[in-house]
């Protein structure tokens, strides 16, 4: 299945290990970006994932394309354009000190010319279209491009998955009306990755004081009512005992059902960043391969859990690796 | 508030990660020293922390001064003198293998000429004086200098905090009478960072077989009786499940009250060294900014917990970082 | 006591930290091999451990010998021969992603000419002979050499310890009859390190559906019946909560008794590889120094627990370190 | 232009910097292989380079494919097969200590099944075919496959470039008749990268005692006579003042002409390995883009010189980078 | 002497060693900026160097300030402001591959609000003012601020040194009139660091076809005529044999004299970036300490030569180190 | 041949690459010491080199012993004793910045108890005794021990080589009379490694204003006259073009002859430290294997040249490697 992923690509510049940023004079660099993360995971799962983005024609932009290619992503939709390479600086947290991200992505080549990707040409060859809430959050041009993209996908009959990925700082960096823009993204989505907070923001509703489960259910119901095209809403449910030790479950709503997968303990986490994208990619893999919802959700959760063991934003494991985790094939050394 | 910190500065030469010492041929170097650690933390909290010490006029001594300066410590009280740069070698423990420190600080420039700092001149500009039990433990010259220092502070009306920091090996490295020397330090202290073992040693008393809580209370009462100037005694309460996973609470006694802060779970600890100094700095920050004792203690414990997430002896986080931890603002990635 | 260890020596090429293999272009190299691991641990415990093996006369083979020598192993039994240096590639697991080993040891110098060590000459100076199930698994030549070796040891009155160490992939790499070959190893062993699965394989028996404890007991009884020379069977009992957090106990059977040591929690494990060899070495140390079985078993378990805190296959701690762990001398920093 | 490159792919495991092998326990890993090096350079020059090879289906083999993909090489001709990943260990020389390579490539997946690439299918889509003397040197299967390959290319009208790349140790590792095998490679080559020693070996002739220039000319003449299909012979001319400082010129013979490019001083060389492949790729680039021979040779030499400044076997610079070097656009920092 | 340095501060993100940018996923980070480089060198020479700049209030901006402080620079003139941290990416060249810099400094906090430094307040405490041609090149705000700065310095009687530092890419990044702006900088300068190309640009003149020496002399004469305040013009004279091996001399013009210092061979250069700033700082040191011009120029050249041996943009050696180099005290190990 | 080497063992803590000391927070650690360097080189050349020294019983001392053992040195003469591990800090120079060493070896275990090695017992099994001028320079105890050692060697008929190795700072660190002490060392030496400056110091003579060659000859003549036991004087002749590029020849005097070996160009030097010890070891190897003086000198110079290409103080190459360099077997990659 050919999946188009459309959004900004970033270099992630991370302090090594659990160091503070610039505590020592070194940064570890990986490639990142919400949609690129999904593209790499889907490619690792054997799909034909094509990334559409714009980067500067410098060693940085070329390195980002090379890294996508290394992981098997189809880069024919990658364009060079004026502007910077988007960056983000990451300090990994530990114990009770949270991780911190400093975005340095303003005026990126993608944010300047999101339309340069010639999306329409690629849509005609696509089986699926994936985009996240980061893309419309980058600025007016990419907000317009994101909305145009999901409309074009709908026009061409290409199903759309949308990952809310709400980032306050990005929306606040320009005169944006996040609820109005996101509402148009929700309207064209077949699948929404997000939870009651995303829905509350868009619908400007408060889902009350009940349990988290009740709030989620009410929000899902409201979303299905407001957005007739929407077929599924999926989210992880995370409890954080400490920065390095979490508990992670998942839930998926359809118009008729609720599927939940029981929480898994994740201790000594290696890297929490990019785990939401791993979830999106895992669930999409299940749905694209015609699995029943529950199996897709289980695959998605297992993929997410595995991502917590891998440095960098990318999940680069195979379907077999994820299935082994799902089947509890054991945690001991494999020789 | 201007705080003087007086003591030896060391280079810490640590095996990388969880390696054994010289398992691979590399050492990670940071600057350390009980009082320097307090100075850096106080500077990070926005205070005017002035370090008084003596180092050799070599690339090593200059690097140590530069590192203090980097963290905003006032280094006008730093002197060059004959003698070595004090060193310590650190092997981080793991699982059930304890961390190990090899001191290599004998004959340091500070231990040779602790009086070179011209403490009296600096005291006249100071709001607070901090010293630890490491300083008098280094040898006869620094024991004499430490006692002279707290006396001079008292004479000039500068309040004194004293952190017991009992190090058997240092006291045993020369013909010392630790109880007699420490007693003089206790006599001039307004605040004592220490627990019943420190007090037992100095008073040559056994605080009985009761619970740890009872022993601490009896010891505090005895100390208040023996040392009329003493106003507060503060300590952390640590339970170690494994080398990497602890539980940490705190207690502070005044002549009229006991304040306790409930224990926090610390898992996947990054670096336990220097946490006592972070506690002293945190409590001092609270008291120097006129917080009530309980808030000062809570700030101290939160600072200590955060130190466990940072490599090296220094706590370099801001008041805002500590307050966020106190307010439980969440453990998830901050973007 | 002089202990001979006989088997293949490998270079272990590991991805750094918790990285995937070749995620970044660097490998950390250490020396390994089941019997070499035992030799290094025994040498660290103060024994005269002599390694018998064959390596190529290249920088790789010479480095392996040098590393053994560094840890005090007697390398007079090391020979150069034609063939490759055995390698294995290691990816450390994390969270719920298991560690993975890729063997690349076919056609090693040892596997080609295991007989080059002139074992018989060395046996006459030996107090003990140790070998693992990896040696006969490497191929027909080393299977024959392994059987010849234990026979020769028995002939010369040198007691034999045999560590099952069953590795499916090695046995499947040639036309082997593992049960038949291993049976001959069991026949000449005084001590067997292994559990009911090893015994089941060799005796082609199923030890039933009872509890793990019952299966182990039945298997031990069957082994003692089948192998009259066998005096002790020892094994660790491992429960894995996650890749980085285990629980580890131990059991030892003699013809008359069962000794068990209660499980210890191991959290934030550094390196699980080589822990079985640390157990063998620890138990052997106890027996070679005439401790009672229970103390030998406790020493073995403590050594194993400590190995989990050390990178690389080698346990290089001293008897004093292990005794401190046994005595629960505390987990806090030792200064 | 689509160029097929056919041969073994290796992982190069190099001691860092100028260290001896395993002097410190770390190896830097890059992907290599004579034909893969050419493929990467041609891809960097903008050609459609397709690599045909066989690697094991492990993290090692997949990493090698990913790395080729990263550099834009078309990997549709890469197959998984039984056998090892070919390795080589590299110690960089310095001053007057030569670099050393330890091959560990016996029994590689490619050497086992060189025919698995389905070369014929790919040839029908190809404009050029490149192979080196390493491929037939690996063993009887790859010798047969190499000869079959150049024959098939000739049959399909695809021009062939052959790089002598004589490696004594490879030829000596099996019962080979190097001159006879290489003769068949020469017979089908349109371009030969090699010098008088290669030709002397194949023709079993001695080109006399004259100057190096005379020997080269006589050898070229003899080769043109012996191999009617041969159109060009190109070689670098290297003088080594020390391990890190060379002087490098180039020469190309056709049946009617001799072109030489004057030698360039190369000081403080970073990495000499793979420079011959950079030369082949550079000259091929010139010929494939219809440049006159002299320009092709100059481009080849400039590419070769630049390769000496890059770590690893791959030349990954662009045509613009090479042209800038040819045009002497300056050696100062480009901002 | 108190010297004010006014300009943008950058983080330099460099590929390690001689690697290409992102060849491996790591960057080495140092602090840089033409005027900051001068400030650090002057501080290392014992002057009171105060840096005036604006950085974002993030871990990046704070790290930059901390690094200046580490090297003894007075950071009281450092302000936090909105905008990015200026960055530049560096690939070190080698052999015949030039180094490359990718600027990523647009919209930096300094470029946004260069006026935030409250320059006038600092000028009243200053003995000297230094600025480079990078500052006016950043954009209209900093061009205006740079001109205002040199005017204010002149008004307050503070001598001005101006380093041409012409960077085409910066000037081309906005609608700038470089000659007109630079002319105003030249008008207020007491000392100009620059050569005939800088002067030719500003005066829109061609200094003819003579030797380099003649062009420089004619340009100096023209500059002295055009800019009555100008007292000295100093420049290095560089010949590049290869990327790593240069030859470096220096020249200084006054209205009455020409001083030259003979060229020195610089082989195996470690880092060429920042050497121009080392020259400016070295000459300024000489003049600020009342040395005769020739001695100042010799000190400047020696400082510049030493900078080539140090990684990063900063020269952090002492006057004694420079004097030892000037005195040819020997190149052998100092013990 | 069994050679005893007697002296202090140090850890060398070096800034990585060409960095300044503590420019980045990392040190590379190797083992060193003038006599230990000779022992390792002789062991690498196949001799039975036994090191006699004293180190503390800590991880540092044990690591030093382990490292000697790794290189095949017989460590039976290594003792544990009170005192520190001797250290030295190294900054590698570059271009025109000299390397710098900071000694931190005062009060080392060896300097405290040099007599603990029980030298006499070892002498009775020895064929040769080697010691350097560093040993008597450490302090009164080691000066006395050094003199006693060479006397004992003479008494037992064991030939002595003495390497002058004059280190001003060491001699100045205590109330020493260097000429008197060294005179006694010279008196018992069979071979002296040193030049006219060493002899001038001991004999308190000035060898005039002639050429370097003449000074060396006159000094040698004077030494042979003053010290009847002395048979050979050997020295390298070094010219330093820059820190990284030298020219190195060698000379050896006997009572009847002068042998010289022509200078070799050494460019892009990796590590100059320890090269004098490599020369001593190389010449000793030649003499111990009964080569004629000229061959011994050539071997010594070749060994010295090779040492310049190796990081750390140790020369760990084989006789074959040195012979290949002597035979000019080529500088190109060995495959």
Order of helices and strands of chain A: EEEHEHEEEHHEHHEHHEHHEEEHHH
The chain pair with the largest interface is: A-B, 29 and 27 residues
Average pLDDT across residues of chain A?
97
What's the number of helices of chain A? 13
Unreliable segments of 5+ consecutive residues of chain A: none
Main β-sheet description of chain A: 9 strands, mixed
Oligomer: homohexamer
Number of strands of chain A: 13
Q: What is the annotated CATH architecture of chain A?
A: 3-Layer(aba) Sandwich
Please tell me how large the radius of gyration of chain A is: 19 Å
Q: SS-based structural class of chain A?
A: alpha/beta
Distance between the termini of chain A: 33 Å
Query: What is the helix content of chain A?
Result: 25-40%
- Largest sheet strand order of chain A: 5-4-1-8-9-10-11-12-13
Strand content of chain A: 15-25%
Q: How many structural domains are formed by the residues of chain A?
A: 1
């Amino acid at each position: 299945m050919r999946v188009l992923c459309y959004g900004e690509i970033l270099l992630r510049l991370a302090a090594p290990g659990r160091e503070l940023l610039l505590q020592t004079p070194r940064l570890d660099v990986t490639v990142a970006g919400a949609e690129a993360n999904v593209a790499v995971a889907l490619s690792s799962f054997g799909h034909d994932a094509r990334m559409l983005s714009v980067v500067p024609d410098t060693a940085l932009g070329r390195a980002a394309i090379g890294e996508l290619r290394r992981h098997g992503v189809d880069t024919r939709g990658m364009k060079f354009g004026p502007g910077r390479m988007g960056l983000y600086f990451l300090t990994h947290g530990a114990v009770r000190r949270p991780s911190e991200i400093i975005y340095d992505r303003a005026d990126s080549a993608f944010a300047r010319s999101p339309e340069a990707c010639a999306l329409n040409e690629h849509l005609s060859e696509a089986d699926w279209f994936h985009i996240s809430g980061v893309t419309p959050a980058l600025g007016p041009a990419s907000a317009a491009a994101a909305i145009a993209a999901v409309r074009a996908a709908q026009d061409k009959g290409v199903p759309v998955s949308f990952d809310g990925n709400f980032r306050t700082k990005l929306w606040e960096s320009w005169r944006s009306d996040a609820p109005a823009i996101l509402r148009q993204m929700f309207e064209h989505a077949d699948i929404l990755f997000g939870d009651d907070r995303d829905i509350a923001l868009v619908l400007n509703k408060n889902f009350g004081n009940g349990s988290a489960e009740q709030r989620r259910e009410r929000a899902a119901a409201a979303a299905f009512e407001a957005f007739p095209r929407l077929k599924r809403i999926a989210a992880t449910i995370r409890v954080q005992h400490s920065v390095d030790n979490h508990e992670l479950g998942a839930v998926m709503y359809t118009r008729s059902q609720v599927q939940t997968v029981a929480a898994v303990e994740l201790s000594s986490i290696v890297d929490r960043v990019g785990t939401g994208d791993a979830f999106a990619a895992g669930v999409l893999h299940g749905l694209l391969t015609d699995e029943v919802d529950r199996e897709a959700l289980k695959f998605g959760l297992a993929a997410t859990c595995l991502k917590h063991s891998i440095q960098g934003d990318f999940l680069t494991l195979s379907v077999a690796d994820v299935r082994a985790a799902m089947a509890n094939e054991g945690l001991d050394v494999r020789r």
